[in-house]
Amino acid sequence: MSKKLLSLFSVVFILLASIPFVGITVKAEDVQLEAAEQETQPEEAVQNPRVEAAVQWAVDIANDNTHGYNMIARLGPDYDCSSLIAAAFKNAGFAVSATLDTASLADGFVNAGFTLYAKEDVEIQRGDILLRPKTIEKGGHAEIYLGDNQCVAAVENYDNLPGDGDGNEIAIRTKETCPFCGEEDYIYVLRYEGQSDSEPTAPMSFWEKVVAFFQSIWDFFISLFNGTLTTTGIV
After folding, report:
1. Checking DSSP bridges between strand 114-118 and strand 129-132, what pairing results, if any?
2. Considering just the CA atoms, what is the radius of gyration of the chain in Å?
3. 106 near 188, Cβ under 8 Å?
4. N or C: which end of the chain has fewer CB within 10 A?
5. DSSP string across 21-84
6. Largest alpha-carbon pair distance within the chain?
7. Where are the domains of the chain?
8. Global pTM?
9. In the CATH scheme, what architecture does the domain 49-226 have?
């Protein structure tokens, strides 16, 4: 009888002792399952703060009608498509020249640490620069992608006056209203994937602006001579 009781107590003791471990095992499995589920979920990309600063600068310019489109006096307060982008990223601390045009935009930004992609090789994201370089056959254009099917760009001088008379010369447009990004008329995508700890670059000096102004005039007449001048901008 005593042996039976001893056996019974032993079984009960083992059962009672195993209950916490069963609970722990289940909890551990739950934690492992939850971790596995988190790993399978795509992480939301964290935007580089300097890229975000450039995007916001361009958006602020688009929302301020004292800034319009100009292909000659293109270094502020009016801009053309490429000088708007160059100024946005320069003001955000990137080592790019404010005088870049669409023929030199790719090289200028690659030298500043950007990666150049063919459009079919990448899914565009906020902060990307959409680029069609200027060629002899066709004028160039560039825009900044904002996400949510929106782009910001300097588009056209509609009234031949300083500033933006109707709010459409430098504007935020959706893919439905923007043939350039909506029809994917761009060829390349420039994206910054580097660090965010560089110092802001110094603003252009007076003489740098003078040189850039005459360079713009020279580029204008060269483009006119080559037949690549368009109202939507070649630079």
Report:
1. unpaired
2. 29
3. yes
4. N
5. HHHHHHHHHHHHHHHHHHHHSPPPPPPPHHHHHHHHHHHHHHT-TT--B-SSS-BSSSB-HHHH
6. 114
7. 1-39, 49-226
8. 0.67
9. Alpha-Beta Complex (3.90)
User: Could you give the CA distance from residue 79 to residue 95 in angstroms, rounded to a whole number?
Assistant: 19
Residue of 230, 216, 70, 213 lying closest to 135 (CA atoms): 230
Structure token pair of residue 206: 């007076």
DSSP 210-234: HHHHHHHHHHHHHHHHHT---TT--
Which amino acid is located at 176 in the chain? E
How much of the chain is in helix, strand and coil states, percent to nearest 5? Answer: 40, 15, 45
At residue 144, φ and ψ (nearest 5 deg) are -105, 130
> pLDDT of 107-161, one tens digit each?
999 999 999 999 999 999 999 999 999 888 888 999 999 999 999 999 999 998 9
Residue 167 to residue 158: CA distance in whole angstroms: 10
CB 87 within 8 A of CB 232: no
